[in-house]
Amino acid sequence: MKPGQPSKTARMPVWMLTTLLLGGGCALSADEQRPGPERLQQLLTGEVLYHYHQKDYFSAISQLQKAQDEDLLRQHDADMQVLMARLRLSYGLQDQASTVLNSMQQKELQADAANRAWYELARALFRKGQAAAARQALDNVHGAVPADIAGDVQLLQAHVLSALGEYAQAAQVLADWRGSDEQAPYALYNRGIALMRAGDTPAALNALQQVADMPAAQEELLAIKDKSNLTLGYMLLQQNELEQARARLNKVRLQGPFSNRALLAAGLVAQMQGRDEEALVPWMLLRERVLADPAVQESLLAVPYVKRQLDSPDVAAQHYEQAVASLSRELQTLNQTMQSVRQKETVNQLLAQEDGANPAARYLGDLLVSRVFQETSRGHNDLRSMLDNVDEGLQSIDHLQQALQPPMQAADPAEPDGRRAVSDSS
Fold it and tell me: Rounded distance, CA 177 to CA 151, Å?
């Protein structure tokens, strides 16, 4: 069974399954077996919600659309309309979901369900790069927000405002944190970045220092601490606070995701302080790493430059020759990768995120983790799942047609054409 596809039992209507389980061996009349209107609405609603919570969105939207077309969900119409909007969002139909939600503003809705739907719409629009539309969707979030998404709503509001260039407002949104403690470091980091871009450097340094000095044991928190220390290091470097910058850069883990940029900056700080030989230490370590990283490429040129400053022209020349050879090989590999990306098989592997043996993934790390690529990959996988459902449905129709055909009359074994032979004798 493929991911996202329900089992054969899961496709059985809930009301039918309930009848089979509860009916036992009792014989009921036709009127007793048929559920009443209210009971039927409950069963249909339960079936749709069951598929939805099983993440079987295809079955959920199919059943809900059918029930709405037959006008079977009047009492639950508002809530089901919200659910329909959320289901359409799961397939990237932001415009249709927005139309549904906008048409219901005057109707009586459950605030939690409506706020959750508007948040999901805003998130989907923001992932599509439509920050202005996402802001309009967030403006429809009113009153108390469900506790499990309160922090997500704040972070999304800050991201949307930052994307629109309103950094001061983004920082203000995150000033009064209402999310979970686990999300607090991310909120504080994003607030620091917003303050920095708004030009409030002292407040930005204070926010980032709080994140950088937090105790942490989990990998995600360690990574955001590294990122905060790296950002602080570059900010202090720009302010010519070299010793403070050096202290912050030294706190970035050597094997973390931000270590390459930290090593490059640490060497630059040492060089600016007049300690050329000490600058070589992080740069020599950096030049041994994966050459696809721009920081590693810069170190290949930084080392011979310092060697020349130290009156070692012969050594500097050797390092320059090594840099030219290494960069030439990397350029050749990059050209081969570009040709590989143009092939259909490579693109399919990337969309399916099967990048383990794909050389293109070496250069496309930022692309693979970007919102745009993840959204495209999700849509690609949804389309494949829908095509599988259509193929399976066509096969079911073929089997049903075969089952409904009348049985063929058996032919006489002695007469292959099914007709009696006419005797020549009279």
Answer: 7
Please tell me the distance from the alpha carbon of residue 410 to that of residue 423, in angstroms, as a whole number. 22
Residue 38 tokens, joined: 């209210």
Residue type, 382: D
How far, in Å, are 86, 92, 358, 387 from residue 96 at the CA level? 10, 9, 37, 21
pLDDT tens for 122-175 read 988 888 888 998 999 899 888 888 889 999 999 999 999 999 999 999 999 999
What is the secondary structure of 298-316 as a DSSP string? HHHHHHHHHHHHTT-HHHH
Burial of 47 (0-12, 13-18, 19+ CB in 10 A): buried
Residue of 99, 89, 101 lying closest to 126 (CA atoms): 89
| Crossing angle for the helix pair 111-127 and 94-102, to the nearest 10 degrees | 150
Which single residue is written with the structure tokens 């009153």?
Answer: 143
Which H or E element spans position 180? none
Tell me the two tokens of residue 371: 């919102």
**How much is the pTM?**
0.71
